[in-house]
Amino acid sequence: MDRRWFLAAISSAGVATTVGCSVVGGSKTLSEPTVHTESSGRRSLSFTSKGTEIGSLGVTGTVTSEGIDLETELWHRRDTAVRSITLEFWMPPRGTDSGTAVAVVSPVEGDSSPPPSVSLSSPRHESGSIVEIDDLDDLADETINTLEFIVRPGSETATTLVIDGRIELASGAWFGSDYTLDGRLRLDFPALRNQ
Fold first, then answer.
1. Mean pLDDT lowest for which of 53-57, 68-72, 100-104, 121-125?
2. Residue 194 or 142, more confident
3. Cis, peptide link before residue 190, omega less than 30° from 0
4. I want to staple 58 with a disulfide (CB 3.0 to 4.6 A). Which of 31, 66, 73, 193 is the partner?
5. In sequence order, what are the residues at sequence separation of 6 or more whose Cβ sits closer than 8 angstroms to the Cβ of residue 96?
């Protein structure tokens, strides 16, 4: 047997296997999170896969004279990085108000990188507001707790805030999976009736 041919064949197989490694884990969507309720204005979603927590999204809201002040915290597993965050804010009953307005309060940036891309929009044919954040740079591999919002209800009778969240996580491991975390938070603010 020709050793050179044999070594070349094994090397080619090894390269082909290595190239495919990033695809081995694939992509997973986790859309049935566990909801943790600490109070009517504090909830979090915990996303797990095979008994291991992959990420969590927590929101704390307080009623002020301007509306609802929201603080968020996004945690994710160490071997993942945040690719993008999409949050849709709305207050039921949908379609009966002039739209839930959202303002991004805090500067969304890391220690040494430029700020990420942040866009605000309205969903088509629906009331509410969508916040999309990507290009997170050095924030991508950290717990993100610098996202703060002010939410103004579009109706005087609205007291429930719904946040539909989608977080895209990229794996840093050879055989790891990319994840899409999809979940919904409902927070009740009865104090809005008194304004």
1. 121-125
2. 142
3. no
4. 73
5. 127, 155
Contact 128, 151 (CB under 8 A): no
Does any domain span residue 126? Answer: yes
Residue whose C-alpha is closest to residue 177's, from 17, 20, 23, 16: 23
Quick one: CA torsion of 15, 19, 21, 25, rounded to 10 degrees? -160
Strands 27-30 and 178-188 turn out to be parallel
Whether 6 is covered by a domain: the verdict is: no
> Contact, 185 vs 165, CB < 8 A?
yes
Q: How many domains would you assign to the chain?
A: 1
- Percent of the chain whose pLDDT exceeds 70: 79
Which CATH number goes with the domain that contains 165?
2.60.40
CA proximity to 154, closest of 109, 81, 82, 97 = 97
CB-based contact 125:137 (threshold 8 Å): no
